[in-house]
Amino acid sequence: MPLGVSDGRALGSVLRVVVTDDRLLGEARPAVDRVVAEVDLACSRFRDDSELSRVNRGAGTETEVSALLARAITAALRAARLTDGLVDPTVGSAVKSAGYDVDFAEVPADGAPIALTVRAVPGWRRVTVLDATRRVSLPAGIELDLGSTAKALASDLAAAAALEAMGDGGVLVGLGGDVAVRGAAPREGWHVQMADSSEAPLDPAAETVSIRSGGIATSSTTVRRWRRGGVELHHIIDPRTGLPATGPWRTVSVCAGDCLDANIAATAAIVLGDSAVDWLETRRLPARLVDRDGGVRRIAGWPE
Question: How many CB atoms lie within 10 A of CB 209?
């Protein structure tokens, strides 16, 4: 059977849904759209009506949240724990201070100088989620940003929902650089093209890898960039400084058991910088790292 493919946009990124049997696309795509819409309403920091915006406005108190937002915040806190704080959801104020304070499509590409202060972010250990009551405790002065993990979680959840709706076959869901697969893969596996940007057109000459399960995530400093006073800034914040990460890697792709874990590792590697190779190899995570000059390093089983 031919593959079924449906493209669109969601969560500020390119959305691609691919199924192993094009007859099942009519079941898969609505399931994906439903999950993505739910994640957007729960986790967006750009919507005044989102649950996350309500939690941030209520900093200093406990806020009851939906099961989905509780899961997303718990996932973000787990990311911080696994990376010793390299991926930290309390970067919200730092991201906004760097100029990313509205949906990226509305961020001016250039602008006047801004004052940035080197200051560690408040820290994930100050945030708690009470599982039994789904209440989030966010101290005053802390603003959550789930952008680093919520989109990857959405890919995982959407792929699972699509497979359940299909009842058979296999599915790939890509949200920007976050790709999740579920079910039976095509005979040759799922082919995923490597690029700095998920907006890059498909190119037969480009490097591709094949996966049969889990997910691949790509984090890059080359896509969501802007200039202030002639200085290049980007959206990946180093929690230790509160400023955009300055390491040697412009793009990191990681393959893991699910898209969320791949995303956590890819983002941590960008922030970690020179030590990223040892960090990834110790965890046996296949990865492809691209330095600022375009040099490529493939490690831990990533195919040459």
Answer: 18
Nearest alpha-carbon partner for 153 in 254, 79, 235: 79
DSSP state of 256: E
Could you report the per-residue pLDDT of 142-181, keeping only the tens digit for each?
999 998 899 999 999 999 999 999 999 999 999 999 999 9
**CATH code at position 155:** 3.10.520.10
pLDDT per position as a tens digit, 97-118? 888 777 777 888 888 988 888 9
* Residue 25 in tokens: 């696309």
Q: How many domains in the chain?
A: 1
Contact 14, 198 (CB under 8 A): yes
CA 283 – CA 280 distance, rounded (Å): 5
Interatomic CA distance for residues 122 and 114, integer angstroms: 21
Token look-up 């002639």 returns: 230
Kindly state whether residue 162 falls inside one of the protein's structural domains: yes
Gap between the terminal Cα atoms of the chain:
30
What are the angstrom distances between the C-alpha of 282 and each of 78, 285, 295?
Answer: 19, 8, 22
Residues spanned by the domain of 267:
4-299
Q: What's the angle, vertex CA 301, arms to CA 299 and CA 304, rounded to 5?
A: 75
How many CA atoms within 13 Å lie on the side-chain side of 281? 10
In a domain, residue 304? The reply is no
Helical H runs in the chain? 25-43, 51-57, 67-82, 92-97, 147-166, 259-272, 276-282
Query: How many of the other CB atoms lie within 10 Å of CB of 88?
Result: 29
